[in-house]
Amino acid sequence: MSLAIVHSRAQLGLDAPAVSVEAHLANGLPSLTLVGLPETAVRESKDRVRSAIQSCGFEFPNRRITLNLAPADLPKEGGRFDLAIALGILAASGQLPAASLDGVECLGELALSGALRPLRGVLPAALAARAAGRALLVPRDNAEEACLARGLTVYAADHLLAVVAHLAGHTPLQPWIAAGLPQPAAAPGDIAEVQGQLAAKRALLVAAAGRHNLLLSGAPGTGKTLLASRLPGLLPALAEDEALEVAAIHSLAGSAALGGWPGRPFRQPHHNASGPALVGGGSRPRPGEISLAHHGVLFLDELPEFSRAVLDALRQPLESGEVVIARAQGTLRFPARFQLVAAMNPCPCGYLGDAERRCRCTPEQVQRYRARLSGPLLDRIDLHLHVRRETPRLQATAEGPDSAALARQVSAAHALQQQRQGCANAHLDLPGLQRHCHLAEADRQWLESAGERLRLSLRALHRVLKVARTLADLQGAPAIARAHLAEALQYRLGEHDGG
């Protein structure tokens, strides 16, 4: 047979569109032509495939070979098509039964010796192959990752010879059986280990219960970073579809997709991180830190030290829950439904308002320092809390509710929100806000008057309502009361004081 078709998958953000690798042999001067919008690494596959086929003892056809990666208008990149191209050439030249390629998709980069090398982004391809009803053949190092797509038949090999022997029926490969999913990574510590800080612990509980963004301000050594690290221990475990989405993003980024499965991510980028590193992008767009924090927590320590342009790039993802990266060849979307927790000092020296240390900053320095954070960004942070210094105790014992007890409250509040509106309170849109955050007329007027005195924007008032709805959920109250509104407003005062 002079024509063979092998099924494979491209990588386009979190999507894995189907690609048909068509190999055709014709009479004429020996040549190899590759078409179908391949980028440099794909064009170089011709030489890798030729050497791999010859190293395995097969005959490389001395004919005119045309390889088409269809659809032709879809960009193709990387070495993921090497295995499919090699199998297509072998099938078109009659060295492999073409019928054996039906019902299976192939991914893998070939070494010159014919060995199969692992790839990034195998999990999205595995999910797409499962939806298409085909089996998936991958390098052995990617087998465990592909098996996350439950119900998919996965074949794994470490060499082209093993793949050909399987497809020819000589030495069939057995479907890969996962060794077992690893347990979630243990939380870094219990919130009861934090000395004092009852107000901050309460704010963490509210933030976890409604998935609200949180800004902690205070002098150095008050425990802001320690408090932020305890938040993941309060959040409920991911659902399977959420865990798969998180693992798929980490697979695209080249990090360990199975690490911590199915725990919630906790990302802590340095303040020197660039815009593409934080938001995503690059010449070959990859997910940034905010996408790697999808369904988890993004912790930004020393918030004013980040570039203002980088911080302002967070504004749209905080609202929409996704990152849109536009390129000449198309637009990519990465999910970014993360919970922002930020920490900052109240002034450049860090001791403004501190009871023990005197601030050395001038009013102009303090103003310039705070001006690094834009008003629209601060508006999108629901809870603002100034963390006070606690008296240090070297032999302090656990105090207050532990993480497990608070996590049960958070889970109950989450279940209530899912049953009522299908999402967390922080993600309510305007129609949802009007339906589920109804106020009595007197309470509405009181809130509007308070917002006017505090000079809060309409967006900030909406976020006060969302926090109040969370406070009511934590109490199991069906309606928002004046006490819930008052506490929610307390979490906006950090915008106007030393925090």
Explained architecture:
Belongs to the Mg-chelatase subunits D/I family. ComM subfamily. It comes from Geopseudomonas guangdongensis. The protein is of the alpha/beta class. The protein folds into two domains: 3-167, Ribosomal Protein S5, domain 2, CATH 3.30.230.10; 191-416, P-loop containing nucleotide triphosphate hydrolases (Rossmann fold), CATH 3.40.50.300. The chain is built from 20 helices and 18 strands. It has helices at 40-43, 45-55, 82-92, 122-132, 143-146, 160-167, 198-210, 224-229, 240-253, 275-279, 289-292, 308-312, 315-320, 363-370, 375-379, 403-421, 430-436, 441-454, 458-475, 482-490; strands at residues 3-9, 18-26, 31-35, 64-70, 104-106, 109-110, 116-117, 135-139, 154-157, 214-217, 266-267, 280-281, 286-287, 297-300, 322-327, 330-335, 339-344, 383-386. Strands 11-14-17-10-18 form a five-stranded parallel beta sheet. A hairpin with a 5-residue loop joins strand 6 (109-110) and strand 7. Helix 7 (198-210) packs parallel to helix 16 (403-421) and helix 7 (198-210) crosses helix 19 (458-475). The N and C termini lie far apart (74 Å).
